[in-house]
Amino acid sequence: DQQVKQNSPSLSVQEGRISILNCDYTNSMFDYFLWYKKYPAEGPTFLISISSIKDKNEDGRFTVFLNKSAKHLSLHIVPSQPGDSAVYFCAASAYMDSNYQLIWGAGTKLIIKP
Amino acid sequence: DAMVIQNPRYQVTQFGKPVTLSCSQTLNHNVMYWYQQKSSQAPKLLFHYYDKDFNNEADTPDNFQSRRPNTSFCFLDIRSPGLGDAAMYLCATSRDGGGNTEAFFGQGTRLTVV
User: Is B60 on the interface with A (CB under 8 A)?
Assistant: First the structure.
């Protein structure tokens, strides 16, 4: 039962264009959503997050949009740069069983073409 | 100035032979996590410590144990590794385990079972 789904295993985008990474979730109890970026042979690093009470959060080239009614969020990278090539994980957080639970998607591999 | 350090980076163990993976942190964070990640899958939380309080995920096999002797160190013990336990093991820390708290990851230990 995947509560957080990233349906695109990979995405290829031309340098300078917009990259849009999508994430869907099923549990309406999630109250925070986080994006992590992972380079090969490294651990994931935090990128950006959004609270469920907001619909947009922006940090430089990175913007996350949340559509609660559709249980969908997306990460926009504008403009895409070669260094953005990595695996991007969507994760969702909810307070359950006396702890915050962080549920991860399987990741989308983003390839930026020069 | 790595903040979460995992040793070793690569570990080969024999089927059924106990193995220990280690993690240390310089962040003085309260929470330490162990994740298992198999290829192209979401990271799966095995357990976490909030300070000295151990929290085991319901579906973590008994074969997996953990120790946290002090704030800085956390160990993952696999008592009898099977072929299915071959994976990347990620250690992470966070300040307080809250829903929006950033987690800091180590580089991971790639475990091979032969």
Answer: no
